[in-house]
């Protein structure tokens, strides 16, 4: 990594955000597949359940590794994070529903497309409204 070392703060932050996102994506997919295939829960309900769980995991990982606190008190930071996450959650649920119910796309592919789409939204809004960096 000599040419692209993680010394540029924005590049480092994006790299860490994507790393956390990949971890959260795999947790989300495994949980989603478990709920659908093993627990026999409807795919859209399973998506909502897995998304809520992963939002909490994502907060902990983002707060620890990606963004520095300091813009708000910890209570306000948590509230702001979850407000942004709520809008991402709504987009997630809506897009998953449209893709699985109306476009008949397999739920794992749908979740992958939705996750990539929501990742940009989450990074921009979390950086702008939640965390200091």
Automatic annotation (TrEMBL):
Sequence ranges assigned to domain GtrA/DPMS transmembrane in this UniProt record: 17-131
One GO location term (cellular component): plasma membrane
Pfam families named in the record: GtrA_DPMS_TM (PF04138)
Residue intervals passing through the bilayer: 14-36, 48-67, 79-98, 104-125
Single GO BP term: polysaccharide biosynthetic process
Subcellular compartments: Membrane
UniProt keyword Iron, yes or no: no
Record key words, sorted: Membrane, Transmembrane, Transmembrane helix
Coiled coil stretches, renumbered: none
Membrane topology reported for the UniProt record: Multi-pass membrane protein
InterPro entries registered for this protein in UniProt: GtrA_CellWall_Glycosyl (IPR051401), GtrA_DPMS_TM (IPR007267)
Family: Belongs to the GtrA family.
Protein name in UniProt: Putative flippase GtrA (Transmembrane translocase of bactoprenol-linked glucose)
